[in-house]
Structure formats: structure tokens, C-alpha cells
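sry for the spam today, last one i promise. C-alpha cells for design, 105 residues
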């Protein structure tokens, strides 16, 4: 999947996720700024928060119960299209745009 990460400073980064790889993992592997992923995807840190583009929001499923709880604790405002990027694993055909928040801490 091709993921475009839009940053608050107006720049963007485009990366490709590997098979089964999450949006957080691809970001960390490639040093994409703005995504930390401190807990490695265990749903215990909230430092992988992103805003999913409204146009593709529905493609990436429901926010899980634990994810929902963790989203309440994100450092930058939770918005209707907030997700934890460790919980998004796009298929090869999917295209995704996410915006990274101002801060993860
Ligand atoms: Fe920690 Fe996503 S990487 S909750």
C-alpha cells in the first residue's frame, strides 16, 4: 500500500507498507517524522496517533474498543477521524493519506 503522511509543517512523506505491515511500522522503519510508536503496536502508548483522510476513512474499519480508550489519551486533540496507526494495516491495493499531529507527547 502507498501511504502519504502529511505533516503539520506542510511537507509530506510517501512510503509503501510491506505485506501485513501497519501504517505505524512503515513510518518507524522509514523514519517518517511525527510518528513514534513507542510501544511497538501493543496499544499502550498512543504515540502513533494520526488523522485519516476523510475520503478513505471508512475503508479502514472500525476503531476497536481498546484503541478507542487509548485515543482518549492522545497528546494532540482527538478528532472524528483520529486513529492509532499501529491498528491500520492496509492491503496492497489500498491508498491511504494520513496527517500526523502536532505532537505525540
Ligand atoms: Fe503504541 Fe500504537 S504504537 S499504541
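last one done:
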Amino acid at each position: 500500500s502507498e501511504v502519504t503522511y502529511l505533516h503539520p509543517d506542510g511537507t509530506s512523506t510517501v512510503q509503501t507498507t510491506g505485506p501485513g505491515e501497519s501504517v505505524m511500522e512503515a513510518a518507524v522503519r522509514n523514519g517518517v517524522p511525527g510518528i513514534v510508536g513507542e510501544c511497538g503496536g501493543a496499544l499502550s502508548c498512543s504515540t502513533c496517533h494520526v488523522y485519516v483522510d476523510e475520503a478513505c476513512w471508512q475503508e479502514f474499519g472500525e476503531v476497536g474498543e481498546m484503541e478507542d480508550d487509548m485515543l482518549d489519551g492522545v497528546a494532540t486533540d482527538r478528532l472524528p477521524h483520529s486513529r492509532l496507526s499501529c491498528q491500520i494495516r492496509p492491503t496492497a491495493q489500498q491508498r491511504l493519506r494520513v496527517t500526523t499531529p502536532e505532537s505525540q507527547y
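Residues 24, 37-39, 41, 43-48, 70, 84, 86 surround FE2/S2 (inorganic) cluster (CB under 6 Å). ok im logging off now
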